[in-house]
Amino acid sequence: MNVLMTGVGGQGIILASDMLSEVMMRYGYDVKKSEIHGMAQRGGSVMSHVRFSEQVASPLIPLKGCDILLSFEELETARYVPYLKDDAQVIINRFRLAPPSVISGARQYPDIIPFIQERTQRIHLVDGSSIAEEMGNPRGVNIILLGTLSTLLEPDEALWIDCINTMLKEKIRPMNIEGFKKGRQVQIH
């Protein structure tokens, strides 16, 4: 199984991919992970490959090899369409970080859905950022989206929550567990 996570710096993509990797290792899979930090600055592009199976040789997902794309920012999704298998699952957080050309008024924020539909119809838009804001935890969008992703994978909720309890500081665990559960309640098919 190949899961690609993408977004922009500051959204918690690396923590989310670390948690996914930990859960799948505890579940018994061989896991390989690779990440690229867009100049390691807030707002720069961030991407993480997570691969798990009985045996994984390489940490990098090949083109047309991605089973699930989890995108934390809408436009970043478009960058990774070439990685999608035909009929891959795509989960997109409804969050837009306008590039300079849009901010200046020179261009409109593009509609990426038709571009993604050239490869797959299994596109799920999730209001993860809105849920995080409503919870008073805007930085918790990563755990909310991880909750949504978890519904497409084998491990049960208890294993995910155990990893949250192990990997996060005690004072932020309750809010993140609540966010994870809210993410699991998002209906995707």
Quick recap of the structure?
The protein has 189 residues and is of the alpha/beta class.
List keywords for this structure.
globular; alpha/beta; 8 helices; six-stranded mixed sheet; Pyruvate-ferredoxin Oxidoreductase, domain 3; 189 residues
Describe this protein's structure.
The protein has helices at about 15-25, 75-80, 100-105, 115, 130-135, 140-150, 155-165, 175-185; strands spanning about 1-10, 30-35, 45-55, 65-70, 85-95, 125. The protein is α/β, with parallel strands linked by helices and about 190 residues long. The protein has one domain: 3-Layer(aba) Sandwich (Pyruvate-ferredoxin Oxidoreductase, domain 3). The longest helix has 15 residues, at about 15-25. It is globular and about 50 Å long. The model has no long low-confidence stretch (mean pLDDT about 95).
Strand order of the largest sheet: 2-3-1-4-5-6
The backbone outline, from C-alpha atoms, is globular
| Mean pLDDT across all amino acids | 93
CATH T-level fold name: Pyruvate-ferredoxin Oxidoreductase, domain 3
The rounded Rg comes to: 16 Å
List the total number of helices. 8
Total E-strand runs: 6
The helicity comes to: 25-40%
List the helices and strands and how they pair.
Layout: E1 2-8, H1 13-27, E2 30-37, E3 45-53, E4 66-71, H2 74-79, E5 84-93, H3 100-103, H4 113-117, E6 123-126, H5 128-134, H6 141-150, H7 157-167, H8 173-185
